[in-house]
Amino acid sequence: xxxxxxxxxxxxxxxxxxxxxxxxxxxxxxxxxxxxxxxxxxxxxxxxxxxxxxxxxxxxxxxxxxxxxxxxxxxxxxxxxxxxxxxxxxxxxxxxxxxxxxxxxxxxxxxxxxxxxxxxxxxxxxxxxxxxxxxxxxxxxxxxxxxxxxxxxxxxxxxxxxxxxxxxxxxxxxxxxxxxxxxxxxxxxxxxxxxxxxxxxxxxxxxxxxxxxxxxxxxxxxxxxxxxxxxxxxxxxxxxxxxxxxxxxxxxxxxxxxxxxxxxxxxxxxxxxxxxxxxxxxxxxxxxxxxxxxxxxxxxxxxxxxxxxxxxxxxxxxxxxxxxxxxxxxxxxxxxxxxxxxxxxxxxxxxxxxxxxxxxxxxxxxxxxxxxxxxxxxxxxxxxxxxxxxxxxxx
Length: 395
Prior knowledge:
Layout: H1 2-15, E1 22-27, H2 34-37, H3 41-49, E2 51-57, H4 64-73, H5 77-80, E3 86-89, E4 94-97, H6 113-119, E5 124-127, E6 143-145, H7 153-164, E7 174-179, H8 181-189, H9 194-217, E8 222-226, E9 232-233, E10 237-239, E11 250-253, E12 258-261, H10 265-275, E13 279-283, E14 302-306, E15 311-313, E16 330-331, E17 344-349, E18 358-363, H11 367-375
Parallel strand pairs: 1-7, 1-8, 2-18, 5-6, 5-7, 10-15
Antiparallel strand pairs: 2-17, 3-4, 8-17, 9-16, 11-12, 12-14, 13-14
Helix pairs in contact: 7-9, 8-9
């Protein structure tokens, strides 16, 4: 009996793929209502075929890297360490910026799903899911692509299909592909602009092409379409640089919030409370518990959030890492309990998912539980992901 179990394990490791395989399609900035609003026929058809979660509630801050890594690890940002798109780490004496050092694995905590799957004998392939090209715990997916914004939608679709056409022993059982078009257009033009609606159409077409082409290779494929957050129109741009004495401070300008790391945070806070009525200034230990955003030294001494969906920034003297935020028409990152527009969406179809289930909400962190169940691998203990919040859509 032991011999048979060992032979089964060896077979799984040799085959290198899940049964059935899973394709994850990640849509950055695809708000919960965009598919219905703009009649995204391919997404709506996949939703009709399978199950869906109407509002996927992002972790705070509702920005890209924190939430995609929460999906990948089953941990809130304060636990996996990617607490923002930009932040300062006092222990390292360095600043993380998503556009500068995102490929450095030392920033990423938790065990990403691609590494967990590889440990269980399932080959994985990733095309631009944030952080998947970093060397985390000394490993990467079997197949991956280093981030290159010049790669077109068509190139991504073609590569995914090629991965699934590999010989059985080389074929990945988990493939993840990422599209940023809707998020980019929303930032530049606003969530209601014609350009953003056009981006929704392009991404919807990519989803349709992927489903059709991949099913030509493998009929029993499971599909998970997921977005990290939504987007809202920007109300204003607030520069706080002259509202307090920020000398000696470091600022991490996330756009929807600013984190400040200061030698005397109380003095700075007092000035901001007095001089900047447009914002709320949280001490790190007073951030609302419901946001699960405490207890990590990468979170600033002060977290400054606007009272309306505005862009906020601070440029302290002599802080070379503090970068001004460009003017944007659309943004996210705000409290999802306050702004429904922050919510994303989720659709599951294929053998891993039930048909006809319409669930109201779940959290981005719960996506990890879905991935584990779809791949038939046990989830590690001690996670924030809760399978009970998503079990209704799963077989």
